[in-house]
TrEMBL record:
Full protein name: Aminoacetone oxidase family FAD-binding enzyme
RsdA/BaiN/AoA(So)-like Rossmann fold-like domain mapped to chain residues: 10-387
Alphabetical list of Pfam families matching this protein: HI0933_like, HI0933_like_1st
Highest taxon of the lineage: Bacteria
Keywords annotated in UniProt: FAD, Flavoprotein, Plasmid
Domain RsdA/BaiN/AoA(So)-like insert: 189-335
InterPro entries with a match to the protein in the record: BaiN-like (IPR004792), BaiN-like_dom_sf (IPR023166), FAD/NAD-bd_sf (IPR036188), RsdA/BaiN/AoA(So)-like_dom (IPR055178), RsdA/BaiN/AoA(So)_Rossmann (IPR057661)
PANTHER family: OS12G0638800 PROTEIN
């Protein structure tokens, strides 16, 4: 039986998420014949659900130090050559209204669908051939060509992201292909992910939904944002941020009440007949004050408590220690840390040194941003770096 001829392209891009769409658009507009493949029935599914449907598409404060990687210098080149301001200029060119929410985080006023539509239009301008609901299958390399899904090209871009949120079709396929071509993988782990607490913290699980301003600290890294108790443990932006720096066995220190000792001493002077719960309720949500009072179990009025004891309680509330038993894992992780090692990639083009013509971009690579638009900026910047090169 005669075999149908393979369609030949200049580049095949695997994964139509933020990174793959950007790389395809840039390469296509530069004249490359690009095939973009995804097993999902829609492009940019994570963009669509991001930022509560409004897509936190970048951050005004993007700096290389906002990214975790075994090589903290790797992201510098791509981030400096396609910056947050470049992406913002594209957003404005499409007339997409945006706003800064907090901490430099930029969101669409309308819908994340506008970002996907913009990227699809950019791909359309680059005559990108997009094939959705398409399985990648096995990949073969021979005669300088990568053979994938009935097509071939001298260049192959891995943009299939990481395994976080598998129910949305996320897979570790990029790692399998990278390994096939001799690249190393930095052990992937769930990041920007809630913590699970053990039985010793059961009283806090009962106040699920209570959030408070906090400073969370892990391994010398700290973030000042809101924290939230959940029915299984801890979440909220401050917690998600430090989760990326956490390993099993590490302690998380949380400021439940800043400057707590002086607040308790002032309460003792102002209302000596009051109990701890009343003093805490002046500064914290009532349910949280209640749970803390139960846990601290101070069986007398504040006026009877020695100052030294109030200092001790204050210090504890200023940096309360939790030892999570684990995280909620990939099903709830906003990103995957680790991934394709940057040691084998060019920071300028994202091309693999060991496998000419093979590129890796976006979340598949061992570059992980903070919460707040940093991960999409990495997707855009690394996508542009590869798009220019192919
Ligand atoms: P991404 O995962 O987006 O795309 C990979 C593509 O490859 C997908 O289209 C997938 O279908 C496809 N694919 C995977 N495996 C495949 C296979 N085996 N065969 C074929 N195709 C395959 N970041 C941020 O900066 N701001 C934000 O507001 C948010 N919000 C947010 C909310 C939620 C709920 C999540 C889960 C994540 C975020 N993020 C975020 C993180 C952000 O979504 C993420 O960093 C980027 O989407 C990564 O872009 P990539 O293109 O690298 O991968």
């Amino acid at each position: 039986m005669a075999r149908s001829p393979q369609m030949t392209f200049d580049a095949i891009i695997l994964g139509a998420g933020g990174a793959g769409l950007m790389a395809a658009a840039v390469a296509g507009q530069a004249g490359a014949r690009v095939l973009l493949i995804d097993h999902a029935d829609k492009p940019g599914k994570k963009i669509l659900i991001s930022g509560g449907g409004r897509c936190n598409f970048t951050n005004m404060g993007v700096e290389p130090q906002c990214y975790l990687s075994e090589n903290p210098h790797f992201a510098k080149s791509a981030l400096s050559r396609y910056t947050q301001w470049d992406f913002l200029a594209l957003v404005e060119q499409y007339g997409i209204a945006w706003h800064e929410k907090t901490l430099g985080q930029l969101f669409c006023d309308g819908s994340a669908r506008q970002i996907v539509a913009m990227l699809m239009e950019e791909c359309h301008k680059g005559r990108v051939d997009t094939r959705l609901s398409t399985q990648i299958g096995d990949i073969r390399h021979g005669d300088g060509m990568y053979h994938v899904a009935g097509a071939c090209a001298p260049q192959l871009v891995l943009a299939t992201g990481g395994p976080s949120i598998p129910k949305m079709g996320a897979t570790g396929k990029a790692y399998d292909i990278a390994r096939q071509f001799g690249l190393d993988i930095v052990t992937p782990r769930p990041a920007l992910v809630p913590f699970i607490l053990g039985d010793e913290d059961a009283s806090f699980k009962k106040i699920s939904g209570v959030s408070f301003p906090s400073v969370a600290r892990v391994n010398g890294v700290s973030f000042e944002e809101a924290a939230l108790f959940t029915h299984r443990g801890l979440s909220g932006p401050a917690i998600l941020q430090v989760s990326s720096y956490w390993s099993k066995g590490d302690t998380v220190a949380l400021t439940i009440l800043a400057d707590a000792a002086s607040k308790l001493l002032a309460a003792k002077r102002a209302m000596p007949r009051a109990h701890l719960k009343a003093a805490l309720s002046d500064h914290l949500p009532t349910r949280l004050a209640d749970a803390l009072a139960q846990r601290i179990d101070l069986p007398t009025e504040l006026g009877n408590v020695p100052d030294a004891e109030l200092y001790r309680i204050g210090d504890m509330l200023s940096a309360m220690e939790f030892q999570p038993t684990g995280t909620e894992g990939y099903p709830k992780a906003e990103v995957t840390a680790g991934g394709i090692s940057t040691a084998g990639l060019s920071s300028k083009t994202m091309e693999a040194q060991k496998a000419p013509g093979l590129y890796a971009i976006g979340e598949a690579v061992d570059v992980t941003g903070w919460l707040g638009g940093y991960n999409f900026q990495w997707a855009w910047s690394s996508g542009v770096a590869a798009g220019i090169a192919i």
